[in-house]
Amino acid sequence: FFFLMIRRPPRSTQSRSSAASDVYKRQVHGDQQKHDYSQKLNDEKRYLAEQAELWRADNEKFYQKEQTKKALVKDQYKDNQDTLKQQMGNRSKESLKQEQTTINDREAIYNKDILEKISKLKENKVF
């Protein structure tokens, strides 16, 4: 009884109202949508790759600028240290002793002048 079911032939006509036509339209439209989506995805990937490259280039430029600044500061620090060493080297123990001797000589001359003035005042009996 079940084996005697009548099978209907498939609809092969491409008229607008046929179900086969609807399936065909969906397939063509679906393929176009897939292509459009794929194209959009590829465009998005390309855009992101370009942006990543720009970001990397900007980051590299920034890193190079920072390294240049760091090198300049390091060179300035080294130059300052060299200048200080040179100045300190120029003021050797010998020159410091000489300066101290000059100061002592000036004090001696000043003290001598004061003592002479005091003795003159004593002679004039101001005290």
Could you please describe the fold and organization of this structure?
With 127 residues, the chain is mainly alpha-helical. It has two helices and no strands. It has helices at 19-90, 93-123. The longest helix has 72 residues, at 19-90. The chain is rod-shaped and about 160 Å long.
Briefly characterize the structure:
This protein has helices at residues 19-90, 93-123. It is an all-alpha fold.
Question: What is the strand and helix layout of this fold?
Answer:
Blueprint: H1 19-90, H2 93-123
Helix count from the secondary structure assignment = 2
Averaged pLDDT, please? Answer: 77
Largest sheet: none
> Assembly state here?
single chain
User: What would you report as the Rg, rounded to the nearest angstrom?
Assistant: 51 Å
Helix content: over 70%
- The low-confidence runs, each spanning 5 or more residues with pLDDT under 50, are none
What is the strand content?
under 5%
Terminal Cα separation, in Å?
Answer: 159 Å
Q: Helix and strand string, N-terminal first?
A: HH
Query: What general outline do the C-alpha atoms trace?
Result: rod-shaped
SS class: mainly alpha
| Strands, count | 0
